[in-house]
Amino acid sequence: MLLHHALFSLLVLSLSTLVFVFDRQFPGTPWVGVFYSLIVFMVAIAPSAIYAVTVFAMASLLLIAGGIFFDPEFMTPVRLESRFSALIPLAIVSFMIFRFKIDRQKLQEAPVISNSNDDLVIVFGQNEGSFYRNHNFESFQKKMGIAGYLDILPRNALAHVAKCLEMAIEGKSGSSFNMPGCNPHSSICGHEDVTIKDQTLYWRWTVSSEGRQVIFRGTETSQLPDATSATDRPVDVKDVPESDIPAVQASATHSHQPASVNGNSQNNLEERTQELEREIAEHLAARKSLAQSEKRFRDFAESASDWFWEMDSELKFSFLSDKFFAITNLQPDQVLGKTRDQVASISTHSGDWSAHLEDLKNRVPFQNFEYGFEAQDGSVRWFRVSGKPILDDDQEFLGYRGTGCDITNRKKNEERVRVLSKAVDQSPSQIIITDLEGNIDYVNPAVETFSGYSSAELIGQNPRILQSGNTPPETYQDMWETILKGRVWQGELSNKAKSGALYWSFCTISPVKSLDGKITHFLASEEDMTLRKQDADSREELERELQQAQKLEAVGQLAGGIAHEINTPIQYIGDNLRFLEETNDDIARLIDACLEMSSKAQEAGHLSDETQAVNAICEDIDLEFLRDETTNALKQSLEGTTHVASIVRAMKEFSHPGSKEKSAVDLNHALESTATVCRNEWKYVAEMDFDLEPELPAVMCMAAELNQVFLNLITNAAHAVGDKGESEMGKISISTRSAGDSVEVRIADSGVGISGENHDKVFDQFFTTKEVGKGTGQGLSLSQDIIVRKHNGSIRFESEPGAGTTFIVTIPVNDQSSDERAA
Amino acid sequence: MLPNILFVDDDERILSALKRMLRTKRNEWNCDFANGGRKALAMLEEKDFDVIVSDMRMPEMNGAELLDEVRKKHPGTIRIVLSGFAEEQSVLNTISSAHQYLAKPCDKENLTETLKRALSLRTFLDKSTAACVVGEMNRLATIPSVLAELKDEINSPDASVERLGQIVSRDIALTAQTLRITNSAYFGVPVGVTSAGDAIRFLGMDTFRSIVLSVGIFDECVCSQKDMESVTGLNDESLAIGALVEKICQIENLDSRATKIAIAASSLSHIGSLILMTQWSDLYDDILVNVKESGRPVVDEEQRTFNVSHPELGAYLLGAWGFPELVVEAVAFHHSPSESDKFDFGPLTILHASQCLIRPDFDIDLVDQVDPNILDLDYIGRSGAMSKLRGWADAAKSLQTQGIH
What we know:
- The complex is a heterodimer.
- Chain A is an alpha+beta fold.
- Chain A has 23 helices and 22 strands.
- In chain B, strands 2-1-3-4-5 form a 5-stranded parallel β-sheet, with helices on both faces.
C-alpha cells in the first residue's frame, strides 16, 4: 500500500513539474492541459481523502511556486487569470470526483450489524458496487461481516438475492460474483421487517425453516427492486404498501451452482428464483396468519389485567409486557436482565421462595406463586405469577414464560380480615353469632371462658343453654321482637355457666343483614357485668353512707347554733339557782330566828295559839326534811346546769369546723371534751378515768381531726368492753404524757382484745369485726391517715385477747413540716 | 361611793337572773339592768357607769354598735361583752369596741372576778382625762415597716407561726393587741398566754390571718412619720428590757410561768409611754428632752405634765384588756415597786431591776448613788435581790456588747 502511495505522490509531483517545464518551454502547447488532467486523475484515484487533498495542494503550490520562480510575470493579473482560470474548474471537477468517493467510504465505515445470531448481512447498494466487488470486497466483508455483496439492479434483484441466499445457506462467503444482467423478475423479496435507521435500510428476513435470518441492508436511497420498471427508479421504502410486496420463494433444498456466472447458470437461477418465489409466497401466507394470531394474542394481552413475562435460560427476565411497567413504575433497565428474586427484593429467603426457586431450577411449570415486591417508595405490592418453561424443538431449555398479576389489594383485604377476626377472637367481650333461628354459628374464646362450655359444645346449640332462669321471660320476648324487626336490642341477662355459677351480662344483640337487606345472622356482644353490679351495689352502699355522713355534718353545723341556743337558758337557769341557793341560806337564817322566837314565846307561854300553829306547820311540812332537801335540790340542780353547760361546751368545741391549718391545742382538754361528747357510748359499759399530765405542752395539730381520732378510739374501746358481755362495768383509761418533743396519748380498755390473726388488718380500710350495719371499718384507717400523714405522728396498739387493748397515739409537739420550711 | 355597773341584754330572763345572782354583791356594787341598747344609752346619759356588760345579739342595736357608742361617748367606762353567740367573725368585730369578752354560760365566779378586776383599775386611774383617753383610744402606734413585714409573712405560702411570733414581739402595739385577743376565752386559748408566739400558735394561722388582714385592727395604729423615731426608740428600749429580763430569769431559774409573766410585762411595760407619745406627741418630745438634760426620772416628768405616768396608764389599759393580774401589777409598779405592797421575789423584782440596769450610764459600783426614783434599793433588798444585782448588771453589760436589737 505504501508503495502505491509513494508512487502516486511521485507521479503527481513529476507531473506538476512537467507542467512547469512545458509551460515555460513550450507555451501554448496542450501539454499543460494534459498534465492538469493527469493531476485530476490522480486526485480522483487517491486512496484516501487525505491523500487527495495533499496531492492537490502540493500540485497547486508547486505550480504557483514554479510560476513565480520561473516566470516573473507570473504575478500579473493576466497570467494569474489564465492559470487560475484553469485551476478553478479543475478543482471543482476534482472535488466532485472526490465526493463520489467519499460516499463510498461512508458506506464502508457504516456500523456493522451485529450478527451474533448468525445473521448474515448482505449489503446491497447503488451502482458503485463493482469497485468493491473487485477490489475491496475482502476488507468490506470482514468489516461488515457480510456473506456477500449484492449489487442491485432493480430488475435483477431477486436473482441477486437468490444468489446471496444460496451462498448464505451454504455458508459460502467471500466470493464475489459478477452478475450483469440477471433475469428480470417480477417478484420482490419478501421481508419481515423493514426499518430505516441512520439512513440505512434494514430488511430482515427469515430464510427457511432453520430460522436463520438474512438481513439486507442498504442506504436509504437504495432502490427497491421494482418489478414493473426496467429502469432504476428510486422508491421510498415507506411508500410501498406491504401488500404490493409479493412473496418470495426461497428453496433451501435447491441445489445451487457455484458462483461462476455465465449464461448457463442463468437458467438455473431462474428456476431457483421461481422456487424461492413460491416459498416466499408460502412464507408470506404463514406470516399473515401468524400476524393475525399475534394480533389476537396481543389483544388478549392488552385487555388482560395481567402482564406477560419471559425469562431466558439463566432465569433472567428478557421480556415483560407494558402492563408490568405501568403497575410497578419501574424502568425496563431496572428489571430486564435480573432474576425474579433480585427484582422482588423482599424476604426472598422464605420457604415459599425456596420452593419456587426449586421449581425454576427443575424447570417445571408453576402456578400462583405469590411474592412481595418492594417498590421504590418503600411500599409493598404483592404479585402472583404462573409460568411454564420454554423448550425448543430439541427439548432444550430456553427459559420461562408466563403471566403475573397484582394482588396487593386482595392481600390487603386478606390482612384486614385476619386482623378483624383476631380482634373478635381476642375481645374480652363475649361474641356469639347465630343464624336466623338462633342456632349458634360462632363463639369467641371469651364466651368459652365465661360460660365454661367449649366452642364445639356451643356451635349448633341455641343460646338458651346459657339461661339461668333468673331473667324474666318478658325480656326474651322483647329481645326477639326487637331483633326480628331489624333493630338492636340491649339489656341485662342472667346467665348460668356450665359449672352452674351465675353471671350477669350486659347484652347487645344486632341483626346482620346480607347485601339485599335480608337478615341472615344475629350478632350478640355481651359484657360481663357481674363486677359492675357488685360495684353498683357497693356504690349504693357508699352513697347511703355519704348521705349519712352529710346528715351528720349538717347536724354538726347545727350543733354550734344549738349550743348557743341552749347556752342562754342555761345561763339564767344557773344564775337563778345560784340566787335561790343564796336566798335559801338567807331564809334559813330567818326561819331559824323565827323558830327561836317561837320557842322562846312558847316557853314563856305567850301567843300559845300562834306558837302552836307554828309547830303544827313545822310538823305538817316536815321542816327538817324540807330544809335539807331544798338545799340538796338546789345544789344538785346547780350541778346539773353546770353539767349541761360543760356538755354544751364540749359539743361546741367538738363540732367547731376544722381548719386546714394547725394550731396549738391542749390535748388534755380535747380528750375530756371528746369523752364528754360521746359519754352515752361508754357510760353504760365502762367507767372512765383520766390520768392527764398537768403541764402537757400544747400540740400543734388540727383540733377537729384529732378529736375525730379520739372519738373513734374511745368509741371502739367502749364497744370492745361491751362485746365482752360481762355484767360488771369495764374500764377505759385515758392518759397523756409528754415524751421529748412529742406527746403520747394512751386509750386503754378492758375489752375483748384483738386476736392475733387480725393484728395486721386492724388499720385496713373496710376491715371490721363488727356486724353488718354497725360501722364500716373505716374509722381506724382514717385515724391512721390523720395521725401519720397529716401530723407525722404514729398510732399503734398493744392487745391481749380477753384482757383488753391499749391504743397509743404519739404526736409531735411542733408541726414538722412548717419547721422544715422555717429552717 | 359604790361603783356602778350596767348590764345590757335583750332577754329579760337573763337580766332577772343576773340581778338575782348579783344580790350578794349588793353592798359592794350598784348594778343596773337595761333591756336593749337604746335603754342602755339612755341610762348612760343619766348616770356615770364604771363598767358595762352587754350581750352581742340584740335586736335593733347589737352589742358591737352599742359598745362603739359607749366608747365614743363614755370612754371612761370599761366595756365587756357577755355573749353566747358563736360566730367567730362577730367576735372579731367586737375587738375594736370591747375591752373584754366573756362567753355564756358564764358562771358567777368568773363574772364577779372579771368585774372585780375591772373595777380595781380605778386605783390606777380615776375618771380623769387620761382614763378617758385610754378608754376611748384603741390606737397604739405601730411602726409601718414592722406591720408590712407582718403582712408579708402572713401572705407568704410558707408562713410559719414562729416567724410571725418573732415579728409581733418586736412591736409593743402588735404584741398588746395580739395578746388581748387571746385573753378572751372565746378562742379556746388557755388563760394566761403571755407570749405573742404562743398566742398565735393557739389562735392558729387562719384566725390570726383573719385578724390581721380582714379585721385590720392593726391598720388603725400606724404612726405618723415624725413619731416614728420616738416609737422606734420606745420599741427598742422595751426589747432591750425584755432581753435582759429573759436572761435574768434564766440565771435565776425562775419557773416557766413566772418567766412568761416577767417577759410579757417587760415587753408591755412601756405601753403607757406609747399612748402618751401618740396622743400628745409634742409634749412628750419635750419631756424626753428634759429627761435627757436633767437626768430626772421620766415618770416624774410625765406626772408633772400629764398628771399621770406611764406605768398607771399601761396598767389600766392592760387591765381593761383583761391581761393576767400579775402582768398588770408588774407593769403598774415597775418604776415604783414598793407601792405594790408585795415584796416577794418575782417578775416585778426582775422587771424593776432591769429597767434600771438597762441604762447605759448605770454603774454597778455606784449603785448606792442611784436616784431612788430610778432604782428602789429598799425594795430590792426586801425582795432578796440585792446580792444578785451584780450578776444581773454583768448580764446587762454583756447583752449590750452583743448589740441586741
